[in-house]
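Lab notebook, bench 4. The sequencing result for the construct came back, and we need a structural model before the next group meeting so we can plan mutations. Quick request posted to the team channel:

Model the 3D structure of this chain.
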Amino acid sequence: MATRELKLGPMEIRLLFTLEEEGKSIFRTDDAKRILHSSAASVKNVLYRLRKKGRIEEIERGKYLLFPAKSGYEGKWSEMPFLIASELVTPYYIGFWSALNYWGMTEQVPSVTFVVTTKRKKKKKLTYGPINFEFITLSKKKFFGMIEEKVEGGKFNMSSREKTVVDCLLYPQYCGGIDEVIKGIWEDQNELDFEKILDYSRKIGVEVVMRRLGYILDMLEIKNEVADKIARSNPKGFMWLDPIGSKKILEYSKKYGLIINRTKKELTSWMGY
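Done. Here's the predicted structure in token form:
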């Protein structure tokens, strides 16, 4: 049995249409008062009804997210989570799997928007209507390499292509696994500045990121001087290639100081598709 769509009242329609005309994806109670020219009690009632009908969601006290009309609007809606992120935490940037997809380095569309910040959030995961967020906290030393992207209705911070690779090599669990990073490097090899990736790897001060990068470039036979520079650093000791993979040791890479726990066939299985 089909569910009956809840009809909108005149004041509800006026508020929604005006907000969409003004390009406001996120609005405040004061915006509603300005548009409706009504009493505080009346505005509160309109907002309550729109929440019940699933047209708006309260992000925090006095601040709301507008859900666009079902018809059309899809392009803007796809970027809506990025615009909302700036209202949830500061400083921030969109990163990891979300950034891989944004830059076209993976065709996988994550169901969660990954937000990187230096702040510790009490809730690591939040849901607003159909949108899911996950917050990853990085130290101030590791928090850099973002760029500002502009879209209709606002702007947002996104990790650059190079910083996206570094972050994903550091914490592959937030990008669908190291396989997705490898695929992204392969797909975007002509756009990536590998020297910058190496510099960023050194800047965050986590040696395993450089080791993984060198090994991956070698495995993919991407010819540049970066892999050679990493190999010449003569890494001491051994670290896991895939930190979330099986702890079964297949071999050791003395060249890059890595414990290899995934086969090349496994890591490049996407090449067959």
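Residues 183 and 250 are 22 Å apart (CA to CA).
Will bring this to the meeting.
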